[in-house]
Design a protein that fits this description.
This protein has 103 residues and is α+β, with helices and mostly antiparallel strands. Helices cover 18% and strands 37% of the residues. It has one domain (24-102): OB fold (Dihydrolipoamide Acetyltransferase, E2P), CATH 2.40.50. It has 1 helix and 5 strands; from the N terminus they run αβββββ. The protein has a 5-stranded mixed barrel with strand order 1-2-3-5-4. The protein starts with a helix and ends with a strand.
C-alpha cells in the first residue's frame, strides 16, 4: 500500500467517524445538573481546575469563578453539560456553571 492510498483511507475514516465524535446541543435532558465534589488542580496542558464529583465523574468547569479555584475545596455546583464545546484539556466533561456553593 502506498502513502497516497493510506492517506486517502485515513481521510475517509475521519469523515465517517467525525460526526459521531462531535455532538451539538446541551445535555440530553435539556436542563441542569447538580454535582457535589472537590475542586482539583490538574497539572496537564499548563494546569487548570477541574471538579471531581463524589461519584468519580470528572467535570471541566468552563467558567469557574476565581474565588473557587482552590485545590481541595468541597463544592456543590449547578450547571449545564456542554456537549457543543470542545476543549484543549482532553479532561472531563465540559460544564457551564450556573451556581456554586462552598460546603
Amino acid at each position: 500500500m502506498d502513502m497516497r492510498s493510506l492517506l486517502w483511507g485515513l481521510t475517509v475514516l475521519c469523515l465517517i467517524f467525525a460526526p459521531a465524535a462531535v455532538s451539538c446541543g446541551g445535555d440530553d435532558k435539556g436542563g441542569t445538573i447538580t454535582v457535589t465534589g472537590t475542586i482539583t488542580y490538574i497539572e496537564l496542558e499548563g494546569g487548570f481546575y477541574g471538579i471531581i464529583a463524589d461519584g468519580g465523574e470528572k467535570y471541566f468547569p468552563l467558567n469557574l469563578d476565581q474565588q473557587y479555584q482552590v485545590n481541595g475545596l468541597k463544592v456543590r455546583v449547578e450547571g449545564k453539560i456542554r456537549k457543543d464545546v470542545m476543549t484543549t484539556t482532553m479532561w472531563g466533561t465540559p460544564l457551564e456553571i450556573l451556581k456554586t456553593e462552598r460546603l
